[in-house]
Design a protein that fits this description.
Helix 15 links the parallel strand 10 and strand 11. About 60% of the residues lie in helices and about 5% in strands. The strands form 4 sheets. It has a 5-stranded parallel beta sheet, with helices on both faces. A 4-stranded mixed beta sheet has the order 3-2-1-7. Strands 4-6-5 form a 3-stranded antiparallel beta sheet. It is α/β, with parallel strands linked by helices.
């Protein structure tokens, strides 16, 4: 820092020669960009007194009282005159004026140039915010209040003496708190209760007797599903008010406690609809797929469903309407539902939501994934979306309260998948399609959809093909729809092919369908009817299209990117895109999003059957899968290298023949990894029982960020387990050692230490037998970590030293530095604090020299822990702050949470409980490395901080929750510590 005070950016005028004053912090003045000297503390006190009078004249006596009160010096009047004279020389002419025996500051000088005062701007912004709130524009009101609050720069009138400054300081601080309360109130109105808890915890600690803040904290906790803590916060407040003031909580606070005890449903819902955080999050979703222009028949069903929806949207309607359509694949459930939904749009003016639940396949979409997408479409920011299914469902229902929204849940697996996605609110409705009759979906209006009648089928065929072509060949047209089994999807595909080929006649198409070699005998029976329809479409493809259709169907992922498809087909991206878009036109492939494609579940199965039957030579199927695996491995290795410059793991991975994507930007690389997570992990699993096993394991290793970030952790764990089994069965020690290394990482991140220890030992033994130097060093480091987590620091130390030696031998300095970090932690556990600090400093220096990005955060993090133990709290906080910044930029959410926990530890050690509680809340919100046991540790620390703040009841709620976690997930020593805290004598 150069010592120049900060110029508030929010109120900097365009005229660089204009004067600016600030009182919401130190009393300062600027002309343009230049800071002006405001003199001694008493001289600044005079300037502040004049500025706060807003242009009114202050007499000399009033100024003397303001500066010195009842005990002024003998030369007070002369001093006032001297201060005024000095200020007049500094400021523009005509700003500080003498009149009527006193002085005034005019915010327009003699030249007519206006000056500005931060307090005046804050007042304007607050007034505008109140107007916006009155009109219901809470988003704008919040933004204005945040802008006003950002004008405060520390303590008001900092270091300014005198009784007047003291009075104004208290007044303006009270006003600031009122603005903060108003903004927090709007936060809760808009459903941002989870984010508000951390700030409210810190504010109630700083202002323990301010009941409005306590009320907001109770409400935020309750709406976040933390009812026990909300009630404990009330108990803390009641005790504090009785002890300090001898009074009971005010009636509003008492009423809130009663409503929480009664679980008042109105209390759980924000009274204002959730507003969008960004322009990209629409408040009024319109997600329905396009309806077909040639919709035919189904008139009785359309009438029946429309009446149900109309009743639901009416003011006097039922709580919620659910209509569930059931029928075989291809019978037209989705077409009918979309058509009815479009007809009912005007009855649901607040929007329509749509999702394909993919229930017909083996990988149905999880309800929590759908809820996340729905909440984003309804305007909820990503940061406001909770993790658990229950919390997402509750927020979803809260967001829909007061709205009239239609939800179309397409292709559902069963009632269990659907229930969390139902609105549950008056004025809303849901349409569900499924192959299963949902008799166990309470209150649902069930509709069984059968195939079309011959008349309806012919009408549909005629609409697509054209009246002229059908009129002259009516009998042939009847033959066509009969061969399609009157199944709408089969009719549509056949008619569309005919419409696209003007040289064909209806009789030509009928002859093709009559040929049993062109269709399956089961055309008129169950799901085989859909397969027959697919056969018809596949038979019309050009050779290149057919090859693409067959090969891409081999991939297990939920969808496939254009680049991965190009790898499978061994074609340039441009040629691949042309092929895939032509398949989209045939309806055999869907465009999931720009650059991404997917099959309908049954179409994928059919494509695979075609590949087994038609692909020549048969080895081409394995070759296509090999190219896709190479693509993923090469690209993932590139992402790993960008994230960890100098880390030579990529040099020890299996060699690939097909190239991957190249990235120059780390953010784009991470985008690819997280977007491709599901297809990538599916590719790994699909390669388990093949000669691609080693490459698949290495792909899993290179993509380890998927578990450390907290994203896709369940999929990653499932895949790691599968690869451990596959490599063991294959008898490949090298591959099994690496697979168990990836599984060890999963277990460490989730806090399952004993299992991690077993896997790390297995990985070490296997790597040694295979002479796999990289895996051997990695596993040794992991084994040391497991011992460290079990507090066996002396036993863990040799493993870290072995890892350091191994990494040094193969020239992997970044991983050597990582093991140095862990060695520092071991010395810390052994009580060698000075040694721990020295080793951590060596590790950080190595990271800085290498130019590491992501792992540099580990260096800062480790040094921060060592400095904390050394009592060097300020230095420790600086290191943790640097680590937090790096982890955040690399989307390592669990490491962000863990770092916040460590910051909380420092603040608690320094006896700053309010800051400790605030960072502990952030750690809970983000999650931590170490899973449920680590959550217990954070809750224990939060309880200690709350106890120091006098919030004993809330602290005990945290400790009871921590004890429950330790008892469920292991941690006998920690459980005993918490039991001691819960003992009244100890807690006191």
């Amino acid at each position: 820092m150069d010592g120049v005070p900060r110029v508030p950016e929010q109120w900097r005028p365009d005229d660089s020669a204009a004067l600016r004053f600030s009182v919401l912090g130190p009393v300062r003045a600027w002309r343009g960009a230049d800071s002006l000297p405001t003199g001694s503390p008493q001289q600044r006190a005079l300037l502040a007194a004049l500025l706060l009078r807003e242009g009114r004249t202050a007499t000399a006596g009033e100024l003397i009282d303001a500066l010195w009160g009842e005990d002024p010096p003998s030369q007070a009047l002369a001093a006032v005159r001297t201060y005024a004279s000095r200020l007049r020389k500094v400021l523009s002419p005509g700003v500080l004026v003498s009149e009527s025996g006193g002085y005034a500051v005019r915010l327009t000088d003699e030249s007519g140039v206006g000056a500005s005062l931060d307090l005046a701007l804050a007042q304007e912004l607050a007034a505008d915010a109140e107007k916006a709130k009155t009109t219901g524009d809470l988003c704008h009101a919040r933004a204005l209040l945040n802008k006003a609050l950002s004008l405060w720069d520390g303590e008001v009138l900092a270091s300014v003496p005198g009784p007047y400054a003291e009075t104004q300081r208290a007044r303006l601080e009270e006003w600031r708190l009122q603005l903060v309360e108003s903004r927090l109130d709007m936060d809760l109105e808009q459903g941002c209760h989870a984010e508000a808890i951390s700030e409210l915890t810190a504010l109630t600690a700083a202002h323990p007797l301010r009941e409005r803040l306590r009320e907001l904290l109770m409400l935020a906790l309750y709406r976040s599903g933390r009812q026990a803590e909300a009630l404990a916060a009330y108990a803390d407040t009641r005790r504090l008010l009785a002890d300090e003031l001898g009074v009971d909580p005010r009636p509003g606070l008492q009423e809130l406690q009663q409503r929480i005890l009664q679980a008042d449903p109105r209390l759980a819902e924000p009274s204002a609809p959730l507003a969008p955080e960004t322009a990209a999050a629409p408040v009024r979703p319109a997600q329905l797929p396009a309806t077909v222009s040639d919709f035919t028949g189904r008139s009785s069903f359309v009438t029946e469903l429309s009446e149900v929806l109309a009743a639901a949207s009416a003011a006097e309607g039922q709580v919620m309407a659910v209509s569930a359509l059931a029928g075989i694949g291809g019978v037209g459930k989705t077409t009918l539902a979309v058509h009815v939904a479009h007809r009912a749009r005007s009855a649901f003016p607040d929007g329509q939501l749509y999702v394909d639940l993919q229930g017909a396949g083996s990988r149905a979409v999880a309800p929590e994934t759908v809820l996340g997408a729905f909440l984003r479409a309804l305007g909820t920011a990503d940061a406001a979306i909770p993790d658990s299914l229950e919390e997402r469902a509750a927020l979803y229902r809260s967001t829909l309260d007061g709205r009239r929204i239609l939800v179309l849940l397409d292709n559902a697996r069963d009632a269990a998948q659907v229930r969390p996605l139902l609105p549950g609110m008056e004025g809303c409705a849901a349409l569900v399609t499924s192959r299963m009759r949902m008799v166990d979906l309470a209150g649902a209006h069930l509709v069984d959809l059968d195939v079309m009648s011959p008349e309806e089928a012919l009408q549909l065929f005629t609409k697509i093909v054209g009246e002229e072509r059908v009129a002259s060949e009516r009998e042939s047209a009847l033959d066509v729809v009969a061969a399609c089994g009157f199944l709408p999807l089969a009719i549509r595909i056949a008619a569309s092919r005919l419409a696209a080929r003007r040289t064909w006649t209806v009789s030509v198409l009928a002859a093709k369908l009559a040929d049993e070699r062109r269709r399956l005998d089961e055309l008129q029976a169950g799901d085989l009817a859909v397969k027959a329809t697919f056969e018809l479409g596949y038979g019309q493809l050009e050779p290149a299209q057919a090859r693409a259709f067959r090969l891409l169907g081999l991939a297990d992922g939920p969808d496939i990117s254009l680049a991965a498809a190009a790898a499978m087909l061994d074609l340039p991206v441009e040629a691949t895109e042309d092929l895939l878009e032509s398949l989209v036109d045939t309806s055999l492939l869907e465009s999931a999003a720009p650059g991404r494609y997917r099959y309908h579940d049954l179409v994928r199965l059919y494509a695979r059957a075609c590949a087994e039957r038609d692909e020549q030579p048969p080895s081409e199927r394995a070759a296509a899968m090999s190219r896709m695996l190479d693509f993923y491995l090469a690209t993932a290795a590139g992402v790993y290298a960008i994230e960890r410059p100098g880390d030579r793991l990529v040099d020890h991975l299996e060699v690939t023949e097909y190239p991957g994507l190249r990235f120059t930007d780390g953010s784009a690389a991470l985008d690819w990894l997280y977007n491709e997570a599901s297809p990538l992990l599916a590719c790994v699993r699909q390669s388990a029982d093949t000669d691609r096993l080693r490459r698949a394991v290495d792909l899993l290793w290179a993509a380890k960020d998927l578990t450390e970030s907290g994203a896709n952790s369940h999929q990653y764990e499932t895949t790691a387990r599968a690869m451990c089994d596959a490599t063991r069965i294959a008898g490949d020690a090298r591959a099994e050692g690496r697979a168990r290394t990836t599984f060890t990482n999963v277990l460490l991140v989730s806090g399952r230490i004993q299992q991690a220890a077993e896997q790390a030992q297995l990985a070490m033994d296997l790597a040694a037998s295979a002479e796999d130097a990289m895996a051997m060093s990695w596993a040794a480091n992991d084994r040391g970590l497991t011992l460290m987590h079990q507090e066996q620091y002396a036993d863990g130390k040799p493993f870290f030293e072995r890892a350091i030696e191994g990494y040094a031998t193969i020239g992997n300095r970044p991983l050597e530095a990582l093991s140095l970090c862990n060695l520092s932690r071991a010395h810390l556990g052994m009580g060698n604090i000075a040694m721990a600090v020295e080793i951590a400093q060596r590790a950080l220096a190595a990271y800085l020299e290498i130019g590491q990005t992501l792992r540099l955060a580990n260096g800062h993090f480790t040094l921060g822990i060592a400095l904390t133990r050394a009592g060097r709290h300020t230095e420790a906080l600086s290191q943790f702050s640097d680590a937090l910044s790096v982890f955040g930029s690399h989307r390592q959410r669990l490491w962000e949470g863990t770092t916040n926990f460590r910051i909380a530890e420092v603040h608690l050690a320094a006896r700053r409980p309010a800051q400790a509680a605030q960072h502990a809340e952030q750690a809970l919100a983000l999650g931590c490395i170490g899973g449920d046991r680590m959550q217990g540790t954070v809750l224990t620390l939060l309880g200690r901080a709350l106890t120091m703040l006098g919030q004993v009841d809330r602290a005990r709620v945290c400790w009871r929750e921590a004890l429950n976690l330790y008892e469920q997930h292991g941690g006998a020593a920690q459980a005993e510590e918490v039991r001691a805290l819960l003992t009244p004598a100890t807690a006191a």
